[in-house]
Amino acid sequence: MLEQRIQQHFIDSADLKYQAAQALSHPIAAAVQAVLACVTSGGKVLACGNGASAAEAQQFAAFCVAGFERERPELAALALTADSTLLTAAAAASQDAAQQFARQVRALGQAGDVLLALSVTGNDANLLAATEAAHERDMTVVVLTGRTGGKLAALLRETDVLISVPHDRAARVREVHALALHCLCDGVDAQLLGEQEIP
Hints:
GO molecular function: carbohydrate derivative binding; isomerase activity
Number of helices: 7
Largest sheet: 5 strands, parallel
Organism: Acidovorax kalamii
Domain SIS: 35-198
Radius of gyration: 17 Å
Number of strands: 5
InterPro entries: GmhA/DiaA (IPR035461), SIS_dom (IPR001347), SIS_dom_sf (IPR046348), SIS_GmhA/DiaA_subfam (IPR050099)
Distance between the termini: 36 Å
Order of helices and strands: HEHEHHEHEHEH
Pfam family, one: SIS_2
Number of domains: 1
CATH architecture: 3-Layer(aba) Sandwich
Helix content: 55-70%
CATH topology: Rossmann fold
CATH class: Alpha Beta
Mean pLDDT: 94
Low-confidence stretches: none
Strand order of the largest sheet: 2-1-3-4-5
Shape: globular
């Protein structure tokens, strides 16, 4: 019984990825172009998310700086989730915790930079505030979310990118987010370094 349950996870994950491949290839390609335009013009990517999505944001920033699957020059990226002192300062000062990422975007973001926001529901108050702050700074916003994109989808501009995984289950959405981020990193590398098969 347990083994069947485990096997069903694999099947469901594979089915969703197969179904999402065609629907998400266009917005992921648009995200590649946005990140590429940003980093090749001296800009940076600011990545954020909550919970497990925070870890994905940090991993993406690490791939940009340290490399993905090939050696290449460092790309400027920063995970807004990584500084625990800064993140907890709002709570200690009784400030609005929903502004924790927005404050960093306003402090660090510049026109031409990219905000990468990850959310299963698309309704996280701190990501909504960060998106608004990014727009104030004339940044492009790339959102990875699930379902219909939630409130984040409604905030996006025509120049922003929405990668919305068509599923309700958080675990499945996160699995596709991980794959989408890998595709994003690989796409940027392919555009910078040329096509190359990775063993």
